[in-house]
Amino acid sequence: MTDSAMGAAGRIAQKFQNSAITPLLAIVGLLLGLFAIIVTPREEEPQINVTFANVFIPFPGATASEVEHLVSGPAEQALSEITGIEHVYSSSSPGMSVLTVQYVVGENRTDALVRLYNKIASKQDWLPQNLGVLQPLIKPKGIDDVPIVTATLWTDDPGRSAHELLQVAHAIEAELKRVPGTRDIYTIGGPDNVVAVELDAQKMAGYNVALESLQFALKSANASQDAATLVTYNEEVQVQAGTFLTTPEQVGELIVGVFEDKPVYLADVANIRLGADQPEQYVSFSKAGVVTNAPAVTIAVAKKPGTNAVEVANRVIKRFDQLNGIFVPEGVKVEITRNYGATADHKAQKLITKLLFATTAVVILVWLAMGWRESIIVGVAIIVTLLITLFASWAWGFTLNRVSLFALIFSIGILVDDAIVVVENIHRHMVMGGKDLLKTIPLAIDEVGGPTILATFAVIAALLPMAFVTGLMGPYMSPIPINASMGMLISLMVAFVITPWLAYRVLKNVDFSHHQGAGAAPWITKLFQGMVGPFLKEKKGSFKRKLLGVVILLLIGLSGSLAVVQLVVLKMLPFDNKSEFQVVVDMPEGTTLEQTKRVLDEAAEYLQTVPEVADLQVYAGTAAPINFNGLVRQYYLRNGAYLGDIQVNLVDKKHRDRKSHEIALSTREPLREIAKKYQANLKVVEIPPGPPVMSPLVAEIYGLDYKGQTEVTAELRKVFESTDDIVDVDDSTVAHARRYILHVEREKAALLGLSQQAVATAISTVLGGKDVTFLHGDHVKYAIPVRLEFSTAEKADIDAVLDLKIRSKSGELIPMSEIVSVESSTRENVIHHKDLLPVVYLVGDMVGSLDSPLYGMFEISKTLKDHPLEGAGEIDQFFFSQPDNPYLYSIKWDGEWQVTFETFRDMGIAYSVGLIIIYLLVVAQFRSYAVPLIIMAPIPLTIIGVMPGHALLGAKYTATSMIGMIALAGIIVRNSILLVDFINDQVRAGMDLQKAVVQASAVRAKPIVLTGLAAMLGAFFILDDPIFSGLAISLIFGILISTMLTLVLIPVLYYAYAYKRIDRILST
């Protein structure tokens, strides 16, 4: 064949097979790959660009309803105008509106936040100036706010307190900030320093001292200014007017009044102390066999965007070691309770090892099938391809994480296809009598070049549309289609450029004369003659072909029905085997901090008996350091005496038999029994394997009025709780807790010259405390407030507040009880909105054999249809969008269902787009509208392997299973293209169609089976991963069944199509 007669593949091979630049290109590719391995940041999970922000708008004194209508509603309307917004949420509570702006995943963070700030700044006139609404506070949040390292400082020294631990932590924070790559550093737990000015109401009355006198004295005495400079004797002298308060003694020495011509000092009417503030949160540390319930604080360290989690975490931990004995005193111990750098490094190392094993396994397979020389060629092609792909992945912006590395392991089987097909065809041509290897290589490559290029782009067409999946799942899984597609293109170039050069060097001295002659081995030909031949006979062949079609359709139907009868369970993603989980506790609102701590301690005491628990930290009144799940669920907003978390860390996976999901499930019932004793709502929260949601099972209740929504929620909650396997049921309403409303008699107060504002301020000061001023010092990192308040004992007695006296305009001290009356009431519910509509959330989870919230949701949905709610009757249910009519009571299902629906919808669209592109590619190649349908016919056959495979192994059909099925479309089409192209070549060479069909199956069986086995081998190395096992099962069983059926079905279908169209084949 002349150069001009050869196609592009043959000419490229001829150009590079003996070129001096070819080995240099291979070396450059290897070096680029090694460079990428060194510089690519390592993380456990992909970095998802999820941007959202909380906007806090205080409205002191307003009711929840007033906040809803005057603040939250107008703010939601304004914020929903911002482009790129996906959802706007609001929570209206007495005195505060909290709005959450969630942007579409992938939205540029900087641009998104600029638009948010601009919108709020431009809407400053949305409320009257004197209404009392304070300035909004904006707090952006993103993936980089999740700490990668947490260190818990604890002590078993009874002489040390959490307050001392907090001072140590504050000293450490600045040192940690100096570590390159660190970002946000903060400490949880321990009371801060405060100068507590505990007022004695009786002494104040005795000395005729009013509260406002104390405030004035503190403010006016704590002032200093750089007044000016003096010039004297040719010297400029700086003058400072006044000095700050620096000690609690100075505070006590302030004169606050005069009584009987003697000065009254602040210390005369108040107890003044510098020390720990009243605890608003408790943190304790427990470690099996070491310590139980020790006072603790936790330092959380986040990293800067784009930095290597492994390197930053290692540097932070090294700095802790350096600080020991310097900033960390004796008796204070540091326990690293989170190290995402170590888990990321371990996962990366493990997956790189699997990558090497998978490569070795494929090389051995080629060795056994074709010989050691051919295996060297294929092995080098795989290594070069993988390393260049790693470089391309780094250049694209991906990190080395579990998904990107799994993408490469999964890809090995398809990346090696091009090299196997090329090498096998070179080998076959030499066996057929090729004398000159330099001439044979381009001819052999050219023969399979067209189909190989087409097959490569077919695989890319199947995979690449998945990169456009929306929502959190899109960027989470995007390394798979993008890395695999880049790898396919690179493998194609390696097969045409480097493989010919290497084949010539490795095979040039091989004597092929003793090898099997042209075509397939006789036994293989005989095998396919027996399998395919009966379908090609003129008389009975047509019936047998129809019978084969019926059998295949029946098998497809039976395989699909496995999901219907729940032999294959559908789930978004299975749980991973993590090293941690959380216990989240909500006590009835109004519960004291100490009672919340008591419940958490009892739960922690039980958890210490679980053998797999390494250590745990109790957080009462605050949240544990957030992970990605906590970020999305906004656990960082969980602050209050009635709220608490337990962070449970498990021993290393190598030292336990049970997976984290099994351990978490086993603890749920004992923990629930503990919670039940205290009327607590307790949830066992595991780290989700993929994108987090508010809760696995979420029902959003909409309706005309909030009272009606809460009534519907109460009824619906009973249905949740009565449904089998539904656990962790909770809703966004709160149990009624007591509150006192102090009414000021305005007329009487006005006659006395007292304003309601003055009365309210005085009550707020003594009960809640008011930081009037601050103590100054040279080495103070956190400002120490000087706080006016009642003592803890007096705060507990409303009568003590009523005994407080306030000065009238005549100078007389008037007891609060004369102008204030007390009304006992209940606390208001928080009012939630989502996308401008009032909503009540009802959440839950599902355990049991199915362990998939989808089935619990459908069971509840069916119950609601069969047995309507007593009060609301039959209410509409919406599965895909908010209700069309928000004025009727209705339910919108959300949670894992929403993510599952969106993911599978988008993947289905991607699958369809991929099939259309494959069809167009094959039409362009074969110039026929019918032949592509034959070539793509085996695609449905994959379900015959995929579904029974999942059922056989007891695995759930997940999003990764779907990815495997999508990839199978491209892989199977490759086999079909090779078969049809070979049949056409043989027919054009003068061979009878029947013989060409059988010969195609026999000759192409080897490369088809070899590439199929290679893909299956690659998949075997991810079979043990909890998340990606679905992908492996789809590939292994799908390739196994569809490859076997393809070698029979395609020849038979093509024969049925072509036996009357021989002339057309000859003319193309």
What does this structure look like?
There is one protein chain. With 1068 residues, the protein is α+β, with helices and mostly antiparallel strands. It starts with 7 loop residues before the first helix and ends with a helix. The strands form 7 sheets. Strands 1, 2, 3, 4, 20, 21, 28, 29, 30 and 31 form a 10-stranded mixed sheet that branches. Strands 5, 6, 13, 14, 15, 16, 17, 18 and 19 form a 9-stranded antiparallel sheet that branches. The model has no long low-confidence stretch (mean pLDDT 86). It is 50% helix and 19% strand. Among the domains are: 183 residues, Up-down Bundle (Multidrug efflux transporter AcrB transmembrane fold), CATH 1.20.1640; 91 residues, Alpha-Beta Plaits (2-Layer Sandwich); 158 residues, Multidrug efflux transporter AcrB TolC docking domain, DN and DC subdomains (2-Layer Sandwich), CATH 3.30.2090; 191 residues, Multidrug efflux transporter AcrB transmembrane fold, CATH 1.20.1640; 112 residues, Alpha-Beta Plaits.
